[in-house]
């Protein structure tokens, strides 16, 4: 199978690859569902509060003995209810992007110093979760530690929970985090990911491209590149280099070395925070990053690869995709480089604080309640199993007698 076929068989392509229109539609649908859920949750909370208030008022009235109600009300007999102001799709995206950037800083910085594949995977798991869930239901600050810890497991970078929590509490703004805070959202997170944790990054392709460019450099030092370069194996290229005369190409190699650091920085930041992983394959992201920094180099490389059919529809389609990906990465790099609008983020955060789903704020409590309910169900199932076993044993005992059990005298 080719690399392209392998990627198309992956869960990342099947479940997490979208068209731009589908991505916009999905986020709008998630926001609409969350808005309804939050408003209904607030209505239930108000109803419970009013019931408790009425109960306490009746108790106080009975204690006074004069029937006077102590509850405040409007002239219509009920308190005026103000509709909760929910987040828009754009505000949700700003909050998710902000915490994605925070996660990158936490994962790659002190005291964690995780490899970029671990931190990058955590960002992608985080972004995938918020395609089907809203920050109004689950605050990003609650999900972020769990996503980072889950990534250490899926990427095989073992980190004990105790050590992870100790390091997490050394990060400014994340103090007083407990092991329960990390583990409580984990099942919700894995459900939102559809229990698919595979994340394909362009990092391996970056190294492969760099090595292939060095081979091309060797070929250019030895001779002009052969016309059938794209069809040659590495062994055939090396044999061709040995037969040809030497020819220098320092500019090409300098371009490759200089571009490698710039491209890696783009892949480590803009590509992870943007929607590139939802819209493009890892190789398309890689070429888009190279085209952003070294357009002449990547054009030369692809011209060599597409030398047989440079004007074919598939070649033109490839260039269109690379151009679109490059524009996306360039836009995201400009946003990262710009000074963050703290006032706007602060406004959104305050708005989020007021419209968080009241039934899902305490994830630790919810997790404990679910475990208690599961324990009770397990006890009931165990009791049913014991009853079935006793009935079966009784039936088998009665069946031992050829003519059945003794008749009971009336």
Could you explain how this protein is built, in words?
The chain is mainly alpha-helical and 410 residues long. It has 2 domains: 17-57 and 83-199 and 342-370, Cyclin A, domain 1 (Orthogonal Bundle); 203-337, no CATH class. Helix content is 70%, strand content 0%. It is built from 19 helices and no strands. The chain has helices at 3-8, 11-16, 20-64, 89-108, 116-132, 140-154, 161-168, 179-183, 186-192, 203-222, 234-243, 250-268, 270-273, 276-279, 282-293, 295-305, 313-337, 342-355, 363-399. Helix 12 packs across helix 15, helix 15 (282-293) packs across helix 16 and helix 15 packs across helix 17 (313-337). The radius of gyration is 31 Å and the shape is globular. Residues 370-384 have a biased composition (Basic and acidic residues). Residues 48-75, 366-410 are annotated as: Disordered. Pfam families: Cyclin_C_2 (PF16899). It comes from Tothia fuscella. Residues 201-329 form the Cyclin C-terminal domain.
The biggest beta sheet, please? Answer: none
Proportion of residues in extended strands: under 5%
Unreliable sequence segments: 67-78, 240-249
Principal-axes shape call: globular
Protein name: Cyclin-like protein
GO molecular function: cyclin-dependent protein serine/threonine kinase regulator activity
Keywords: Cyclin
InterPro entries: Cyclin-like_sf, Cyclin/Ssn8, Cyclin_C_2
